[in-house]
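Structure ticket #2291
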Amino acid sequence: MDDVILVGGGVMSATLGTLLQRVEPTWSIRVLERLPEVAMEASDGWNNAGTGHAGLCETNYTTERVDGSVDIDRAVAIAEQFAVTRRFWSTLADTSFVRSVPHMTLVQGAENVRSLQARHRALTAHPLFRAMEYTEDAAVLDEWAPLVSAGRTGDWAATRDATGTDVDFGALTRQLLGDMSGRGARVETGREVTGMSQERDGSWSLRVRGGRSIERARFVFVGAGGWALKLLRTAGIPEARGYGLLPISGQFLRCDRPEVVDRHDAKVCGTPPIGAPPMSVPHLDTRIVDGRRSILFGPYAGANPRFLKHGSWLDFPTSIDRHNIGSLLSMAGNNTPLIGLLLSELTATRAKKIAALRQFVPNADPSDWSVVPAGQRAQIVVNGQLRFGTEVIASRDGSIAAVLGASPGASTAVPIMLEVLGRCFPERQWNGGLQEMLSG
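Resolution: structure written out below.
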């Protein structure tokens, strides 16, 4: 029997496993990944935008109040959580997976310009955002982002924070799992967990395809993206009841042409369509994956019943049960703009995609851009409401836990995993070791 089994070879499992190895180096840890390699789903470098989310450019992390003031609490919380994650990354032997790339916000139209002015004033009053700059000057925008400035007309405004980052989460995940393996953890691919049940002694038996059919552990963490809910259902823990998931697929436009890529060094966020989830906010991103620079634009969200990119077309329909069907129907009724957006983007032509790109790159040449698939996401639905962000589900006895949700996700992986440790191992005296690690 293992002390810990981590289901899923992504960044969440890798982060939790690394933390556990540092505070409990004698514990036996096994990672079970269903695909041939680790980091092939949401953690893969091309399945996400690689943004180190710190509240610098995402307008959905701030809210304008009725009186015109701006609530920055969520942006501050995410910036603080990302800072904790970066301190953890700084303890790793190789940090080449994270690189400095400025974060920008670009808005168009007089009302959006006014809102961005208010957002900038509110954020720069806080120490975490004092480096943020604001401009309506075409010459300044040309210096910040030449692709974005060329040919731009009308009312617009932009902010820029040079402390932003691009993160290759795939490279990070592989490094963490490689280090774990070197310290004695068993990282096994091609092993799909199909179900689990709790034994009388509180441990868990996992049914597995590929290799030995049964694995046992005292503690189980399910870091399997949208499939986490499916597995929690087989575990039968009441804490998972009532949760539903809305699967969202996506595509990006990608440019690898050096003459274009070399003219852009920023992650530029726009404003989301009405009713759109945070993962659908349009953005033009410098990406550095495996050392190669590219530009991504998107995402173009769509409806897709799979919970994982390599999942099943039956994922969504088989996830519906008597505990969540009412919540899902209520969510659909309350979010008709979102449902309409997802369905309309399913049929979006390449011409429509290029038209959206030209809101950011007015002089874009369609021949420079190709359509590529994005990763699959599953948005949390509870009590008829979409919940944006990432949530921890843990059993009352602390013997099993999972993470559901999406952005900011991997950028705040360390605080999320610290929450898992605190909820599942409240009796352990780990605070001193963890604080020492995160102060490095």
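Closing remark: The chain is about 30% helix and 25% strand.
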